[in-house]
Amino acid sequence: VQLQESGPGLVKPSQTLSLTCTVSGGSITTNYYWSWIRQPPGKGLEWMGAIAYSGSTYYSPSLKGRTSISRDTSKNQFTLQLSSVTPEDTAKYYCARRAYEEFDYWGQGTQVTVSS
Predict the structure, then answer these.
(1) Residue 4, SS3?
(2) Which residues are bridge partners to 72 per DSSP?
């Protein structure tokens, strides 16, 4: 299984950040939870949310409703949207597959900077 993030590397404050994760080697509709995780500079990993194989979505309450995750099953992709971004949302963003209690496959990550 391989995951690959894509999206803009620079987003202006107050805009919506949109990233896509393309999955190969396995379908996003069969088992597992497909997550977005980020790591701000000098900080730890933060789980942002996930979309399940069923299409159900789960979000971190710490992001206060700014997060939306959707999927395109025809392309085997899932997408993160984070609204009203600020410079504090600058981070490396990862998509990952969660199997049981661990994230077993990760994308290589994509750097997103929020700046005017």
Answers:
(1) strand
(2) 77
Q: If you write DSSP's letter for every residue of 12-54 in order, what string do you get? A: -TTS-EEEEEEEESS-TTSSSEEEEEEE-TTS--EEEEEEETT
The 8-class DSSP code of residue 81 comes to: E
DSSP code for 8:
-
Contacts of 21 by beta carbon, 8 Å cutoff, 6+ apart: 3, 4, 5, 6, 34, 36, 77, 78, 79, 80, 95, 107
Q: Which amino acid is present at 22?
A: T
Q: What is the pLDDT of residues 22-47, one digit of tens each?
A: 999 999 998 899 999 999 999 999 99
In tens, the pLDDT along 72-82 reads 999 999 999 99
d(CA 72, CA 59): 18
pLDDT, position 101: 85
Residue pointed to by tokens 């949302």:
89
